[in-house]
Amino acid sequence: MAQVGETGVSELSIAVMGAGRIGALHTELLQQRVEGARVTAVYDVFAESACSVGSRFGVPVAGSPEAIFDDPSVDAVAICTSTDTHVEVMIEAARAGKAIFCEKPISLDLDQVDRALAAVARAGVYLQVGFNRRFDPSHAAVRDAVASGRIGDVHLVRITSRDPEPPPIPYVKVSGGIFLDMTIHDFDMARFVTGSDVTEVYAKGDVLVDPDIGAAGDLDTAVIMLTHENRAITTIDNSRRAVYGYDQRVEAFGSGGMATSANPLDTTTVVHDASGGHGSPLPYFFTERYIPSYLAEWQAFVDAVREGAPSPVDGMDGRAPLVIGLAAWKSIREQRPVLTSEFG
């Protein structure tokens, strides 16, 4: 049983549901690097995956979801299962009175998102959605420059998000496509940096990287323009393959200046030789680029649950990027700007 102090739970007992790549990453960080947290169970429908993660990090393996929901010593559940299972797991976790961390997106279906959020509201449990890039120190500093008024009224935001290589085609087919899988992080970042909701979406895209992605009904290259309630304009450019590495940049331009976040490098060393200057490569993917943000995200979760504080990324923050993504797909299909109000 978790110990309870004057301000709440002193050490948060967290069960990780889903032992794939992201579940294993979260288990490692929680077990080894997040203050005030411990992983007390891991579960996966593929028992061998759960056993592998449990063995690596010294975590007991739960035999079923019910074993987690029915365990009064479990304070919180981290939902790292496949997207199509998020809603049902969230509803059961809410009924069990557990604090909830849910990886993005909550669902690919807006009605299902609303169903899950209604269950969370009825139960009155804590919910945090896994938009980890909000917690990246550099991206957060851009947002802070906007929120503090340091760069004046924000006029333009530019977000670049390019992966080093495309995902496997079987994943593409079930992911919801580039806007609901990849760009959904950028849609959240646009709201976060501007501090303003999106009212209109206009998207253009093509298949320039891999024809199999197009055959699967998806795009691999896209540009999206967002109009915000505060009249700021955000442009986002995406590619599924940047040969030079994982490219993640944010820029905010306002009436009083500009704030930017650049890609971190392993070192700042530049070697000059007969062929020119050569710097350190970019991080290869999100597991290298965003570890600090994952740690900060989990620390915020643990601290908020222990202290009874509001969630920094609540259910409506999880819902809004899905609406923007659905509007982007509608914009592609109908070749026109789409109002987010068209989705209610």
How would you describe this structure to a colleague?
The protein has helices at residues 21-32, 47-57, 65-69, 86-95, 110-123, 137-147, 169-174, 178-181, 183-194, 211-215, 286-289, 291-307, 315-334; strands at 4-5, 8-9, 12-17, 37-43, 76-79, 99-103, 127-130, 154-162, 198-206, 221-228, 233-239, 247-254, 257-261, 270-273, 276-279, 338-339. With 344 residues, it is α/β, with parallel strands linked by helices. It has a 7-stranded mixed β-sheet. A 5-stranded parallel β-sheet has the order 4-3-5-6-7, with helices on both faces. A two-stranded antiparallel sheet has the order 1-2. A hairpin with a 2-residue loop joins strand 14 (270-273) and strand 15. The termini are far apart. The model is unreliable at 1-7 (pLDDT under 50).
Short description:
This protein is α/β, with parallel strands linked by helices and 344 residues long. The protein is built from 13 helices and 16 strands. It has a 7-stranded mixed β-sheet. A 5-stranded parallel β-sheet has the order 4-3-5-6-7, sandwiched between helices.
